[in-house]
Amino acid sequence: MSRPVPPHPNQLPLCFDNADELDRLIETRVAERCAAEAGRWRFRLLVIESVLFATLVGVSGLLLRQPGALVLQATLLVGLSCFVSGILLLWLSSAGTRLLARLKRWPGMNGLLSAEPSASAPRLAVGGYILLFGATFTALLEPELAGQLRAMVWLVLLVSGMAFVGALCGLPSPQDLGGRRAR
Fold this sequence. Notes:
5 helices
């Protein structure tokens, strides 16, 4: 039989008595590590994608027997434009995520973007999209819109846009406005 090996003095002692506490500790550490590495992985994927597209353009140009200077110029242009657009998309997605997180914490917000949307928010969104579809359909039927019809299309677009914004931000409930509930 073998004797148990004593732990190293610098080793963190782990107590497996409380499984819930251990699960919470592991999940917290994994979440922190994933959040820290997410940016690096996105950047790595962006670089790989840029190199892949640039290589694809370069190989295609050489297989089509195009002049070398033209192939080099197209390869660099595609690679750099893919890289720059990817960086822009990464920045926009992080800015959008921060904006949505801030909107969810906005007091009194009960729209589709909030943590607890009200029952009227989906109805307003669907109604707004239906009105927007109706305005677009009306505009497509008539290539040259008359003055009154053009005003109607703009009015419907305005109302549908307001309904969509109302669905995203939410409308106050009657209790919030201080009104009494009908019996």
